[in-house]
Task: structure prediction
Amino acid sequence: MAVHRLTKAQARRIAVRAQLLEARRPTDLLEVVSHLTFLQLDPTAAIAPSADLVAWTRLGNSYRPAQLIYALERDRTLYEVRAIIRPTADLGLYLAQMAAWPFADEEKRRWPPPGSRAQRWLEENDAFRRDVLDLLRRSGPLMSRDVPDTSVVPWESTGWTGNRNVTQMLEFLNARGELAVAGRVGRQRLWDLAERVYPLVVEVVPLAEARRGLAVRRLRALGIARPGVVGVAGERQLEEVEGEPAEVEGTSGSWVVDPTALGQEFEGRTALLSPFDRLVHDRVRAQELFDFDYQLEMYKPAHKRRWGYFALPILHDDRLVGKLDAIADRKVSRLRVHAIHEDVRFTRAMTKSVHAELEDLASWLGLDAVEVESA
Result:
């Protein structure tokens, strides 16, 4: 197969277009999630929850967070597993993978977090597992605080999950496809048997076939990637993509490109991205294709931050040009902009476009004004 030779600009435009971030916007939430293949949930809401921010960046001010809630809890066109939202129409592609969880990356002999000890812990606490399933069968849906801890072996972790036995059991059974998130009360999830939440009849695609199909879908959403791409939490650390080989000027090593993305017209726009946006999720790819240096700094002490607690990457046309340090101050109904960090010197047109996006963001958030702090 011939190798496609791409300039960096061509590669960037393929990536931006694949992520639905060009001038022509999609119009439907389910269409967006189906193409991207998933939305990642995160509770941080310095500006807005990440899943909502990703949706707004694509759909604009026509998007309302209530649409996501309705899709998850009412018409069930979307479902949630371990902080990942996917289209219910794709469930059959994931059921075999869920049944095999936790699984190793067979070729690289690596386990995704929480590793092989999750399987051992589940085996040691099988009576606890059956207690949870029996309780939910009788009384579900329930919040985690309504589920007694009958574990015989505590979950050991040096992080925040240490001894959080009920939470871990619910999470693990969710990952295995035995439990599902039926809804939420505030931020608290309601848990129930998967058979009561998922469609009654789903065709389970065999694991190997499903992985091949997902590899094509994954690349369709990324446009261009390395042969192994960063996975999502709780799943394989690296995921395959399936397309055609490519080389990108100024980079070494092999790339894989979606052949349907080649030769397409491109019209860019300006967008404010979530730190979890898939365009920047792989920090190495962002550096290689966009020359974009970025880290999420909310876990750093304030004095060690370069760009801000929850800085939003700024996309302009086919380049990532800076970071926005801002917060939604709902008490005074202001979008407070602490700083706009310019990775490249902004032209007047770029500055105008970024400020227009800020006004749109404030309007979507229901805030009265944008307040830019003086340097």
The longest helix spans residues 348-365.
